[in-house]
From TrEMBL:
<dbReference type="Pfam" id="PF00378">
    <property type="entry name" value="ECH_1"/>
</dbReference>
<protein>
    <submittedName>
        <fullName>Enoyl-CoA hydratase/isomerase family protein</fullName>
    </submittedName>
</protein>
<dbReference type="InterPro" id="IPR029045">
    <property type="entry name" value="ClpP/crotonase-like_dom_sf"/>
</dbReference>
<dbReference type="InterPro" id="IPR001753">
    <property type="entry name" value="Enoyl-CoA_hydra/iso"/>
</dbReference>
């Protein structure tokens, strides 16, 4: 059931809640309205407490991160406030996921770039199709890392590897994601959602108290993550109003700075 949300769809399918990013015409890029819908959907999920939550996305991409056109089209004197809302709300979403008292699974079928990686990093189980890919784009577009690239990614794939990926803008393939621990399960193209649903339904048969305590003991320390996410936000706000950010965004969008 879509509960009045515009850019995401939230509904319960048996004991599993499903949350779908639903801005396919813009590759599910993160804008304030979509992030607000994510917060609302996760609040509903916390209230209803299903046995598991599954996140997926409509369209060709999972999510291409912050909407570059949204940042670029915002006048520079207003851009810091706009960026603070986007990155700040994304951080709230990540922390909501990390404290949700149910296991979270994410089915990735296409590109994941920039801050949208935070939705993957904050998930407990990730299923990736052969078309799944993960890339930062920060040093190309002229941004500073957000979405947990420094708060969560080093714990997943190692600090040196995470830094290399961010500096060189290296794309992480499905195979790399599986080998490095960014994803745990693969699935044939078009079957990643079914695989994730199968795993989620299996979790509904586990003892709920045991599941909750297992999550508490294995998830990253929320206070530490929150502090690093705040550092990411502050650095992002400083970088987004620089000349090189204007140039990087203009080049990325094919415009004249």
């Amino acid at each position: 059931m879509n509960r009045g949300l515009t850019h995401v769809i939230y509904r319960q399918e048996g004991d599993v809640a499903r949350l779908t990013l639903n801005r396919p015409e813009r590759h599910n890029a993160l804008v304030p309205e979509l992030l607000d819908d994510l917060k609302e959907a996760l609040t509903q999920c916390r209230r209803e407490q299903p046995a598991a939550l599954l996140i997926d996305a409509a369209g060709k991409s999972f999510s291409t991160g912050g909407d570059v056109a949204g940042f670029y089209n915002t006048p520079r004197h207003e851009r810091e406030a706009y960026a603070s809302r986007v990155v700040g709300t994304l951080n709230e979403v990540i922390l909501q996921l990390l404290t949700l008292p149910v296991p979270t699974l994410t089915a990735v079928h296409g590109m994941v770039t920039g801050g949208s990686l935070g939705l993957v990093l904050a998930s407990d189980i990730v299923v990736a199709s052969p078309r799944a890919s993960f890339a930062p784009w920060y040093t190309v577009v002229g941004y500073s890392p957000d979405g947990g690239w420094t708060a969560l990614m080093p714990d997943r794939i190692g600090r040196a590897r995470a830094l290399d990926v961010q500096l060189t803008n290296r794309t992480i393939s499905q195979r790399d994601a599986l080998d490095w621990g960014l994803a745990q399960y693969d699935a044939p193209a078009g079957e990643e959602l079914a695989r994730a649903l199968s795993i989620a339904n299996g979790l509904t048969k586990k003892q709920p108290g045991s599941v909750v305590r297992t999550l508490r003991l294995n998830r990253p320390d929320v206070d530490r993550v929150a502090a690093t996410l705040e550092r990411e936000r502050q650095q992002f706000l400083e970088q987004i109003v620089t000349d090189e950010a204007d140039l990087g965004m203009a080049t990325f969008l094919g415009r004249t700075a």
